[in-house]
Design brief:
The strands form three sheets. Strands 5-4-3-6-7 form a five-stranded mixed beta sheet. The radius of gyration is 19 Å and the shape is elongated. Helix 2 crosses helix 4. It folds into two domains: 132 residues, Glutaredoxin, CATH 3.40.30.10; 44 residues, Antioxidant, Horf6, Chain A, domain2 (Antioxidant, Horf6, Chain A, domain 2, 2-Layer Sandwich), CATH 3.30.1020.10. A hairpin with a 2-residue loop joins strand 1 and strand 2. Helix content is 31%, strand content 24%. With 211 residues, the protein is α+β, with helices and mostly antiparallel strands. The longest helix has 16 residues. The chain binds benzoic acid. Benzoic acid binds next to helix 2.
Length: 211
């Protein structure tokens, strides 16, 4: 059965461009992003890994470790990394899993046979410090992902893990957030001293509590 939100992210041991990695051990007590790409030496994938490398400091600030995966062998990954660094003006310093036996692809259902029998699609998982799956997205090979959106989701997940709030459509770090319905307005006034804006009894905004 395929993975669902809230499931424990399957653990695995894999060969990567940074040596052998035990996934859960590698994540430690932090957050993780595991994302697949269809194949090495392909144009969209090159830009995706380049953008991820360029954003490494943003991931680090959020205590997130990033791992890429495709079914290509290790030597191919290592050669391709040189091209990514050269063409995208970056330094790829996160591990890329060589999933030749498709172990990781199988555990995370990254091969969608009606899209491609052989290649992983563009799957992405955000994993919390409790090792549970917090977000899953799947894009087709023809569409590169927006890694700023991945960071935005991580900001929302990290905020909402600590406060009884949710984030509205298109929210960005620093903007007002929504008080979850489970909190009464009376309680919300106590819990959110920066103020409460009640638009409807079920739609209540407060300034971002951790700013
Ligand atoms: C790409 O990364 O450019 C790509 C990979 C597989 C199919 C189509 C595009």
């Amino acid at each position: 059965m395929s993975l669902r939100l809230g499931d424990i992210a399957p653990d695995f041991t894999a060969q990567t461009t940074s040596g052998e990695i035990r996934f859960h051990e590698y994540l430690g007590s932090g957050w993780g992003v595991l994302f697949s790409h269809p194949a090495d030496y392909t144009p969209v994938c090159t830009t995706e890994l380049g953008r991820t490398a360029a954003l490494q400091e943003e991931f680090r600030k959020r205590n997130v470790k990033v791992l890429a995966v495709s079914v290509d062998p290790l030597d191919k990954h290592l050669g391709w990394v040189n091209d990514i660094n050269e063409t995208q003006g970056c330094h790829v310093d996160f591990p890329i899993i060589a999933d030749e036996d498709r172990k990781v692809a199988g555990l995370y259902d990254m091969i969608h046979p009606n899209a491609s029998e052989t290649f992983t699609v563009r799957s992405l998982f955000i994993i919390g410090p409790d090792k549970k799956v917090k977000l899953m997205i799947t894009y087709p090979a023809s569409t590169g992902r927006n890694f700023y959106e991945v960071l935005r989701v991580i900001d929302s997940l990290q905020l909402t893990a600590g406060y009884s709030v949710a984030t509205p459509a298109d929210w960005k770090d620093g903007e007002d957030v929504i008080v979850v319905p489970a909190v009464s307005t009376e309680d919300a006034i106590r819990r959110f001293p920066k103020g409460l804006r009640v638009v409807k009894p079920y739609l209540r905004y407060t300034p971002q509590p951790d700013k």
